[in-house]
Amino acid sequence: MASSTSQQEFDYLFKLLLIGDSGVGKSTLLLSFTSDTFEELSPTIGVDFKIKHVTLGGKKLKLAIWDTAGQERFRTLTSSYYRGAQGIIMVYDVTRRDTFTNLADIWAKEIDLYSTNQDCIKLLVGNKVDKESERVVSKKEGIDFAREYGCLFLECSAKTRVNVEQCFEELVLKILDTPSLLSEGSSGVKKNIFKENPPQNDASTTGCCSS
């Protein structure tokens, strides 16, 4: 069989990105979705990457899912991975208030700063609902945040797999409903997602040595 037929294995390739504080369960959520298993994982170093083939909305899709490290020291490394993403999943831990407040303080600002698709679909995910007795962030707070920032919203548990598949399915179905993102995800279009940085304003000509 001719190798060129490999192009026909899927209708669209979508780039998805998982972001959020360290320890909220991004890697566990991804593992639960891609391999139907649960593991307690150590924090991601830099960036992890997994491929998942799904059929949704009558289309064969190849999902390239990037799992970014939450620690601040990796921020500059992970910023480039926002480029070209059709879907971004913001994850927080319903048992840790700081991971929720950092959504507005850090992660929503990062999307505004680095995302290159203005129609990019955002999904807010409250993870670890299996620890209901330890919950400190209410579902209503999650809904209100999602409404304010224009996100889809779901609560899930990577451990029990409650709503894990729904998280990715809802995001992908919304992407399929967005024509501008479909053209970007067309399997025939090859794009360099690591574009050159825009030129910096040259401030070196300003006077700095007036006595």
Automatic annotation (TrEMBL):
Topology in membrane: Lipid-anchor
A GO CC annotation given for this chain: plasma membrane
Predominant localisation class: membrane
SUPFAM superfamilies referenced in this protein's UniProt entry, alphabetically: P-loop containing nucleoside triphosphate hydrolases
Gene Ontology molecular function, alphabetical: GTP binding; GTPase activity
Region annotation (Disordered) ranges: 192-211
Pfam families referenced in this protein's UniProt entry, alphabetically: Ras
PROSITE patterns listed in its UniProt record: RAB, RAS, RHO, SIGMA54_INTERACT_1
Taxonomy, superkingdom: Eukaryota
Protein role: Intracellular vesicle trafficking and protein transport.
Stated name of the protein: Uncharacterized protein
